[in-house]
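Researcher: Let's try something more involved. This one mixes different molecule types, so please make sure each is placed in the same coordinate frame as the others.
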Amino acid sequence: MNTVNAVVQGVLLGGLYALVAAGLSLVFGVMRIVNLAHGVLAVLAAYGSLLLGEHLGWNPFLSLLVVVPAMAALGYALQRALLDRALRGGELAPLLVTFGLAIVIQNLLLETFSADTQRLDVGAFGGASIELTDGLAIGWFPLLAAAAGVLVIAGLGQFLARTRTGRAMRATSDDQEAAQLMGIDNRRLYAVATAIALGTVAIAGVFLGSRSTFDPSAGATTLIFAFEAVVIGGLGSLWGTLLGGVVLGVAQGLGAAIDPAYGVLAGHLVFLAVLAVRPRGLLPSAVTA
Amino acid sequence: MSELTNEHSRSANATDERQRGGHVSSAPLLHVDDVDAGYGDVPALRGLTVTVAEGETLAVIGANGAGKSTLLKTIAGVLRPTRGEVRFDGRVVTALSAHQRVGSGISLCPEGRRLFPSLTVEENLQVGAYARRPGPWDLPAVYELFPLVAERRARPAANLSGGEQQAVAIGRSLMANPRLLLLDEVSLGLAPVIVRQLYAALPRITEQGTTVLVVEQDVHQAISVADRVQCLLEGRTVLEGAADRIDPAELAAAYFGVRR
Amino acid sequence: MTGVQPAAGATRPAGTTPPKVRRGGRSARIGAVAMVAVVAVLVYLPFMSSRGTQIDLVGLFSLVVLGTMWNLLAGYGGMISIGQQAFIGIGGYGLVYLATNLGLDPFLAVPVAAVVCGLVAWPTSYLAFRLTGGYFAIGTWVIAEVVRLLVTQVDAVGAGSGASLTAFSGLDPVFRIAYVYWMSLTIAVVVVLGVYLLMRSRTGLALTAIRDDPTAAASSGVAVDRAKRLVYVVAAAGCGLAGAMIVANTLRVQPGSIFSVDYSAMMIFIVVIGGIGTIEGPLVGAIVFYLLQDTLAELGNWYLVVVGVVAVVITLVAPKGLWGLTRGRVELFPVGYRVGPRG
Ligand SMILES: Nc1ncnc2c1ncn2[C@@H]1O[C@H](COP(=O)(O)OP(=O)(O)O)[C@@H](O)[C@H]1O
Ligand SMILES: [Mg+2]
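Model: All components are placed in one shared frame. Result:
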């Protein structure tokens, strides 16, 4: 029963990992950069929600209405002010800049909020659960968080598949110069992609911060888990990423069921195993995005 | 679509006016003025001047490496000239980026087609219309022009044959409803039959009033569709003239850079 | 196809002599003399300075080694790693385990620990090299996390709480500190010179080719792969040396700190601030970082904020770092060739 429970919890957690990962993949797909600050930006969103809760008494769900647009705006500005410039500096510059940014944001959070662990309070709802059999209960909140993750990923998939801007992003991902020849302003598109990525990571950050505790250094593991979800699932495939997140969540859940200290380690080992035997991931996309 | 004959005579008139050497009443649609361009330290265009009148079809020919693609990239804005100006419709567009030039009516169908492989054929065409310029070309019009493309509309672009891909690439450029269409080596890697079929579509394009600049290594193909021919060698013009009056021997010499 | 290529030489006016290609020059000779003098002073230092100064300088030497290794990876190998703390930790723990648990002489244990790092890095590279660019960076980080989590499970080295290096306990602190100082100085000199010689070798040539033109270099794939793997293994061993130095200096190893990603942050900042892709850059960066660290220590976490902002600004505005400001006028380690007028 313990095992079943671990699997169920892992699946639910995987939805959120995949949501963080989706933003990472989107930015990588469109402009071929890995935003090393992606994880700490999720944490930043959680702190934003925390502030709104503390000062205005807002519930984390309500705070999304402010945090998500604010993070999206930050993403747009970040792209325009820093990352565009970094993109022109060759292959290493974006990595150096986003890593520097991660360190800066993390330490600013540390200065502002101290290293104390925090948790967003979703109220009575946080403890409610559905009893399936005895010993196996699914919390309403983890279920909702996972559903939100899947919904946002599905929405992102529809956006990329159906909209004019989504098509332009896929085209740019395939061939940036040819996309410009179609009248696509790649820099505006980059800014929109980063805005979407930060908007989605804000949702993930608030849900993750409500599910479990966080502190300013939580960005590191957030980034790592998202990356593992992407690689396990297969680069360039949103549904693969979702699968990757679920596999990672289940591995962590099963590991932790054996010994709490093995949770994260089990996830890493599954990632390394996939890298060793199936480097293109479990669900590689036909054409890499 | 019914003014086929009208358009045809109009473009012939334009050619005649230019041939008489007199001043064309209005400024040319495109004026590449004394341009230098290149890649790093490698010069590819050296003081090159090219003009195209509205409604005219100009063929730029030349051997491999003559600078033809570089010229088109400079016009489309993918490459910035180090000297000289590009004027389009009387406006200096040298400082405009490639995507802005699409908005003002320049569309380049690049060498090697460069379709978006992960998009379907129809999506490739839709991306072509990204700039949302109004005009005669939309999905039904392109499908009518290339019925084969219509049949393949739901397929990934990467799955098409070379000729089909080239048709999609031309269609994709048309979707931008350009005033000036730049075609770079349509014939590249294609069987002659296929090339003829593709060029057969050209009158249907020019009859819409679209000005066309074709770049070709296939000289005969180029001459057969163009009003005027300009031959490049090492980034300079070595010969130019009306397509129907050009001397084949002289052209061959210019093409290969033989001094006479 | 008959390509019509403009003849590159054709534009040179007739009568001028061809340029002379040379390596180094007067500034390099002066630089070499200055470097030898500085090292000589550093060697003599323990006879005239406090133990505190020596302990501090060992910290600086470890920064020099770390910066030089990270520059070898990123500046020459094109590999951004944020997981070098794996090898810093293995080096540190290796020293403790070999010296305390196995009774090996600690000064012998240091190079042995570095060899262990290299041996761990070699198979690891096959996993890490399946990723490129930013994904490679995070991949190395995951590997470092795995190493940390595994070490935390080993009771023989104190599991989560860490272990002390007791092998020096028979030694008078005055001598211990001086010996560790000289060992660290030796390691720093050997590492910097080693990278210099590596970059002048055929491998260095292959690496320069990768950096300058990845696509052209990729066509000679095997050589490139081998060169990158060599760099990865050498950098791991070098970081292991640094880790061992750090532990020999502080006498304590603790998984949370020795495997901290902050080391990667430090290395990156040292290299970016000093100047990536040059041998001198990390030296300058290490000194600057060392001075900043001392002055900004009171600022607490602000110091990483400041250093982070500086690194971002430098990457965007002056990507060649402080050393780049010399614009190649000064060159202590002439690695490349320079084309100049005859004479
Ligand atoms: N991307 C590039 N980088 C460097 N040189 C180039 C590049 N593209 C073309 N060239 C050089 O510029 C010159 C003109 O090339 P191009 O315009 O492509 O010729 P064409 O299209 O007439 O065959 C040639 O010498 C070619 O080698
Ligand atoms: Mg060409």
